[in-house]
Amino acid sequence: MADKLKIDIVSDVVCPWCTIGYKRLEKAITELGVQDQIEIEWQPFELNPNMPVEGQNVKEHITEKYGSTPEQQKESQQHMTEVGEELGFKFDYFDDMRMVNTFNAHILLDYAKDFGKQTELKMRLTTAFFSERKDVSDKDILKQALLDVGLNADEALARLDIEEIRYDIRNKQGYWKNMGVNSVPTIVFNRKSAVTGAQPVDTFKQVLTELIKE
């Protein structure tokens, strides 16, 4: 059996384009029928590492960070909702939606990797945030997500208080930043080449076909 194509996806749980990018990549993999030749690993990236515990209203946050007007935001959210629908994912934007801190979610995703459940947990958390109006910084929500994908919630949540593990996740974030990743999703193939952004399905198919041939 040839070596699998390793794909690192640098992303955040609360990043809509990361979800769209992954769903398009997944579609490309499925349409090519190469699921057994691919290994995916999710890498941590916080869009808002300094987000306080109480979070921030999404509208305020986007205005502050990107200078978008409410009209531009509405338009952008409408567009993402439509793209999500095409890919079978529900974006449910609402007025009181809050941007939250995702550091703990990244610790749990790292834990899930050891059990081959990383993608499952990632999509569970993303769905909780975008489709179910849930706060993915809340420990009860995180616990439920772990249980939903069949992981040991108590063991996983205990990791949130271990300083060494927190340090390790910060280091991983630092690694990707040092590699020049400053926007997500960044999708890295065999740690040699990368594409950024939610590329079209056909682009992913082309890249995958070339790399698998090699």
Automatic annotation (TrEMBL):
Superkingdom of the source species: Bacteria
Protein name: Putative DsbA family dithiol-disulfide isomerase
Keyword Chaperone: no
Record-linked InterPro entries: DSBA-like_thioredoxin_dom, Thioredoxin-like_sf
Residue intervals of the DSBA-like thioredoxin domain: 7-208
Gene Ontology molecular function: isomerase activity; oxidoreductase activity
PANTHER family per record: GLUTATHIONE S-TRANSFERASE KAPPA (PTHR13887), THIOREDOXIN SUPERFAMILY PROTEIN (PTHR13887:SF41)
Keyword tags: Isomerase
Keyword Transmembrane helix (UniProt): no
SUPFAM superfamilies reported for this sequence: Thioredoxin-like
